[in-house]
Amino acid sequence: MRPVLYILSFLAVLASAFWAYRENYATQAQLKHVAALQDEIATLRESIALQRAEWAYLNRPDRLRDLATINFDRLGLLPMEPAQFGYTNQVAYPPPPELRITGTVDTMGSLDPNVIASTDPQEQTP
Amino acid sequence: MIRTPLRPLARILDARQKGENPDVIEKENLAIRHEAMRDRDRTRAERRLFVLGFAFFMAFTVIGARMGTLAASEPTEPRASVGGSQITSQRADILDRHGRILATNMLTHSLYAQPNDMVDPVHAATELAAIFPELDPKALERRFTDGRSFLWVRKVLSPEQMQRVHEIGDPGLYFGPREMRLYPNGTLAAHVLGGAAFDAEGVDSAEVIGTAGLEKELDARLRDPAQSSTPLTLSIDLTLQANVEEVLAAGMRMMSAKGAAAILMDVHSGEILSLASLPSFDPNDRPANPTEGEPSDSPLFNRAVQGVYELGSTFKIFAVAQAMELGLVNSETLVDTNAPMRWGKYRIAEWDNHNYGPTLSVTDIIAKSSNVGSAHIGLMIGGERQRAFLGSLGLLSAPQVELVEAANAKALVPSNWSDIVTITASYGHGISSSPLNLAAAYATIANGGTKVTPTLLHSETHEKGPRVLSEEVALASVAMMRRVVTEGTATLANVPGYAVAGKTGTAEKPRKGGGYDSDKVINTFASVFPANDPKYVLIVTLDEPVETSGPKPRRTAGWTAVPVAAEIIRRIGPLMGMRPQVETARLDGVTATSAPQVTE
């Protein structure tokens, strides 16, 4: 009985050593992955900051004012005036939507031939 | 285990035969057994002690070794931790009240050289000088070859410049990362922000410190690593600031003024929505402090805060408000205004030697800006009380605001508050104060009489200051200032729909040698709007303006600062979402149209 116990415990040691070896390398791989991700996050944060700065620079009031002046023909933008305040009831409702034509429209009618004859203007002239 | 008997039969029998005591044998054997037991126990205890000692020794060795390695190794970030790993810049951003960026950081690179590693210093020097025109190729070459091992070439590079330096291909040129302060709006709000510069520089990084304005005053907050990811939100509104600066610059050009300043303040919270001072500068490229000439002529000079001027007739409302508070007068009391007035050797005259006398009501003293009338009211109040009141409005001390320059802008107050000081102070002469102090004092009147402390930081909640004036007096004072605009010296400020109230002030500049210059004036218009429910205070100050559309040049505030302020209000009113109000006719006259229209 005893030798079997020895062999079993030896195998257990071998197995746990193998497991520990694998875990060690898996952990290192994960750490490397995390480090790479954090590097990426840092780079992205940096570019977000840069783009926010760029956005603020492109939206600086001086530039927008110049752009509004240059594109006056197309946009017609002027400084806001006190007279431009209105009430909501001064705003027109949008025009009612035109009726939508969904199916095919029958332009031919099948009326009674007598009715057609009686409304024919040439028949009625004499 | 073999048990040795304590009383071995053979020896006992033997002893009995000899007549000896067999108990002796038992005792002897017992002693031997005890000795053996003792020896066995001792070795066992020794072994246990040894094992225990070994265990402790190993434990302490492990702890000691770990401490040693921790102490000796470079600290590293805990990489395995999840989340919370904020990689942020070293200096917090500054935003306006709506979250638009006023100052941020940008990663650039600095350029340094290690001449020992250089292949061709002469070629590198000429190429560098071609990229950066401000570098002298000869001087650079000399510095590359005089045997030094390290030198800075440029503090910051643009990415394009960096690429071109790369293309020189010299191994002795190195780049170090630099976080640089960027003000994307250029000159906008330059005097508020101030500027920043590199302090301690290393190859891998450099410290950015504030050099002026808010950046210097709140340097500790902006550099605090715990708060570096929380931006600092100012009370400044970028849109309003841009409009105020634009209109003010146009006004300054039209009135040929040397400088101009404007402050827009919320009367309830004291938050400054816009603070402009012209001429301005670009904080990205802050000019060096002036070493010659008048410091107040430098663009770095913040006229709105540092400019300590005699603010002229804008002070009259303080004298009148205090007299009403003390119950000495009411708005209809008649006061002696017979000009000129004599006080000892001094002669107090009206503007342009007018005479509004013999008497005027208190309201008309404000509307027509009578010096003599204010002087009489000042004398009624008395110097001691006047000084205390002006002090409680904060006019006699340096302005309190989050700008490093504010502490040095101490008001100029005569040490001996004699009667003539009381007289001149009642119409804003003889004491000098900053326009920011004036804005805070007007805000105090406009909000119903509680003291206002100006601030540049946006906050949702505000504590009310101590009460300085009663609500009725504050209301009456605003009503008088409304009369100044409807029929007094500031009729040009009557912006339809915004019910502007205000007071003009024209002060001649003190001459170097003493006395006053009649053609160099500081014009101030302090306004409050809308008058029926004051929300904002706007101060506009022009330095040496002149209005030349008439037959002779005009230098009174009513012709210079007032139209500029009116245009500012007309422009910013809609931007602040203020709907113009339809004004109803006043009910005190017969009809509104029959009231006499008095203009300057």
What features would you describe in this structure?
The complex is a heterodimer of chains A (126) and B (600). Chain A has helices at residues 2-58, 61-70, 72-75, 113-119, 121-124. With 126 residues, chain A is mostly helical. In chain A, 3% of the residues are buried. With 600 residues, chain B is α+β, with helices and mostly antiparallel strands. Chain B has two domains: 94-116 and 125-233, Penicillin-binding protein 2a (Domain 2) (Alpha-Beta Complex); 240-575, DD-peptidase/beta-lactamase superfamily (Beta-lactamase). Chain B is 35% helix and 18% strand. Chain B is built from 17 helices and 16 strands. In chain B, strands 1, 2, 3, 4 and 7 form a five-stranded mixed beta sheet that branches. Chain B has a five-stranded antiparallel beta sheet with strand order 9-8-16-15-14, with helices on both faces. In chain B, strands 5-6 form a two-stranded antiparallel ribbon. Classes of the chains: A mainly alpha (126), B alpha+beta (600). At the A-B interface, helix 1 and helix 2 of A face strand 2, helix 9 and helix 17 of B.
